[in-house]
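Title: Prediction job returns without error message
Component: structure pipeline
Severity: low
Priority: P3
Assignee: unassigned

Description:
Job completed but the reporter wants confirmation the result is attached to the right record. Sequence as submitted:
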Amino acid sequence: MPFFKRNHRRLPDNAPDMIRSPRRLRVLLIDENPTARAVVARRLSHLGYDVALAEHGFAAINLLVTHPVDVILIDMALTMLPAIATMQKIRATNLGGTACFVMLTGRLDSRSTVEALAAGADDHVVKPFDFDVLDVRLRHLCQRAETLGALARHNAELDARIARRAVELGETRETLRELQVDRARLVSSIQALHDEVERLSAARN
């Protein structure tokens, strides 16, 4: 399960903002065909990705324990642990984190494509594929995942702030209630003192 790392290629100055990334993206390729693994890893590494390889789903799960990734490419032709089952196991264990799942399907395998997307895959790519197109699609998926993650974190922060304000409001209401009780006691004491003064004054007269 080697990692392929190369120097990041320089994107053209006019490259769309969505495909620029402040860091190298990490890809896990799960494919039982060693030749396909080598070819895809080499091409993706030249495109600026750090690529990890797994020969089947079980190896991928073991690798993800210590190596988080941004994208998981799964060949739909897996046999030891089928592709959809591999995706579901990774998600069930939460080892994939926020990684995007992309299925690699055959040109005439539309049924597998439908099954993969219905099972929750983020995208699919038909083989053989254009690596430049694949590059843009992967970066777009990661950008979208990062945007959704940022939105989720922002919403969580808002929820936390609302919860804190609710607690503070509850404490303020309790303090106000206590002040109102103290005020009522004070008014009652003043009234009692006034009544006592009136009584003493009347007694002297």
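Comment from assignee: result matches the submitted record. The CA atoms of residues 31 and 63 lie 14 Å apart.
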